[in-house]
């Protein structure tokens, strides 16, 4: 069981709690393989998805996860809401909560919004991505997927490549991998590594070719143009040449290397289209596992 009412970040989780979520997710995955992949565990509970920023995978995945557990789901997106009439974030959340919900899943472009909501919410708050800060369920599904494929995380070298500065996934992945005994290596041009990168206490590299032969997993990231004030590299073509991944570069990789990406992928930028059908591209398996991991999180936070 989790010790807290909310899931706000990997930073707040102890190793045992992460392991409990992964164990529960494995059971949830078994449920998803049944002919009727649905259980009554959360019957009578309501989950509200509050998305103030676009999402395809996370929102859909939370909705499917809640429905597989028989919870009711309401989806709120800021577009078309009364926020355009001046209603505040706090009022919006309090009004939705007044309709009696047990969990609110929050995505917002500003760091700390899920923490703020947790400060007044009666419901359990789950961070579905807050600005550049954290995306805990993405990290949980990433480590679940790696563990499923490799059997363990301890001692694995895991490269995280790209726009580390603007990536909440990188931040949560680094924390989760380290807590489980793995070795994250962040790779990117100096302009895409945080100013005080040493505070992350991870290995760093500025050249993808340098790390490819030594790593067990490569997590590629999208360039987050929407969070950049000005371009951090001369051209997409140059970025792609220096930091993108293609089959040619993978010739130097370990035979069992795994290629991951949280999505959305910009094919032709960080990943060459020839990676689409690469046998160890497990990007869609990450998406499948996202449902099991989010079922586990919902069950552990608001379950019986
Ligand atoms: N990985 C991820 O957060 O994807 P979405 O933005 O589509 O939810």
How is the topology of this model organized?
Layout: H1 15-32, E1 46-51, H2 57-68, E2 72-77, H3 89-97, E3 103-108, H4 113-120, E4 124-130, H5 136-150, E5 157-161, H6 168-179, E6 183-187, E7 203-205, H7 208-211, E8 217-220, H8 236-243, H9 247-250, E9 258-260, H10 283-302
Parallel strand pairs: 1-2, 1-3, 3-4, 5-6, 5-8, 6-7, 8-9
The chain binds phosphoric acid mono(formamide)ester.
Residues 55-58, 129, 135, 138, 262-264 line the site of phosphoric acid mono(formamide)ester (CP).
What does the model show?
- The protein is of the alpha/beta class and about 300 residues long.
- It has 2 domains: about 10-135 and about 285-300, Rossmann fold (3-Layer(aba) Sandwich), CATH 3.40.50; about 135-280, Rossmann fold, CATH 3.40.50.1370.
- It has 10 helices and 9 strands.
- The strands form 2 sheets. A 5-stranded parallel β-sheet has the order 7-6-5-8-9. The protein has a 4-stranded parallel β-sheet with strand order 2-1-3-4, sandwiched between helices.
- α2 (about 55-70) links the parallel β1 (about 45-50) and β2.
- α1 (about 15-30) packs across α5 (about 135-150), α1 (about 15-30) crosses α10 and α5 crosses α10 (about 285-300).
- Phosphoric acid mono(formamide)ester binds near residues 57, 58, 135 and 264.
